[in-house]
Specification:
Blueprint lengths: L16 H18 L13 E6 L5 H12 L3 E6 L11 H9 L5 E6 L4 H8 L3 E7 L5 H15 L6 E5 L6 H12 L3 E5 L15 E3 L2 H7 L2 E4 L15 H8 L3 H7 L4 E3 L12 H4 L6 H20 L6
Parallel strand pairs: 1-2, 1-3, 3-4, 5-6, 5-8, 6-7, 8-9
Length: 310
Amino acid sequence: MKELSTSHLLGIKDLTKNDIQIIFSTADSFKEVINRPIKKVPTLRDVTIANLFFENSTRTKLSFELAQKRLSADIINFSASSSSLNKGETLVDTANNILSMKVDMLIMRHPHSGAASFLANKTKTVIINAGDGTHEHPTQALLDTFSIREKLGSIKEKKVVLIGDIKHSRVALSNIFALQKLGAEVMVCGPTTLIPKYMSELGVKISHNIEKALKWCDVANMLRIQLERQQIQYFPSLREYTHQFQLNKTLLDKVDKPITILHPGPINRGVEITSEIADSEHSIILNQVENGVAVRMAIIYLLAGSINRV
């Protein structure tokens, strides 16, 4: 079995191009498995994994759980709302108590940026970051780039635009890192207030005009407005945002070329994208969801080899 250069998955920034290629080739094999009549393999039947989700999640949590079950791992699901954290227990104490029950791997989503890295430095276990604050969401970026590769055959030299709330999106940062490592050109597009100043330092193009961005790109990854992370109002109204940055049929007809459309979900239909486009032949949104299971199976399988080395 090929090994990754890291014992954890804390962010795309920590992966090499070779790591990503190993994950993709492994995911190719697992995608074949999950499309068989019998979708389960006994690969990790002696491994116990705890899912620690401190934020609400549907797709990511279900995708990780399904990936674990497909690999025959034992699973513990942790609910922050009913845990001893409400009694003042620290994150490290919570994790160590779980690990003392002979848990081998932790999958963690947390509202604070850097939480996964912090826990990796404080515990002796394999950590997979399922999203930390506005920092990174590495498995989403890997399934996004895997889906682009599957659709277009390659990512190298493809032009990809991320449209929407770049400032508060952990998906955006992870996608930028993954796409650049694989040789794509990257642009971000959105209101000036929702594009961080440091974006120009990452070597990405910046646009505030969605029509021009779509004419430039091969792939458009639509991001929702992250209202739950916004402490102030970054644009006059949702109606005005929709008028300027919504992806709809009128806009695509003006562009007059095939564009592959992604969305990490959840979709706010009628805001960043219309239902007509989200459900169209241009969209690979449901392919992303399917590929998420195969990619997460690959990551868990590859990092399981690090269990005794951490």
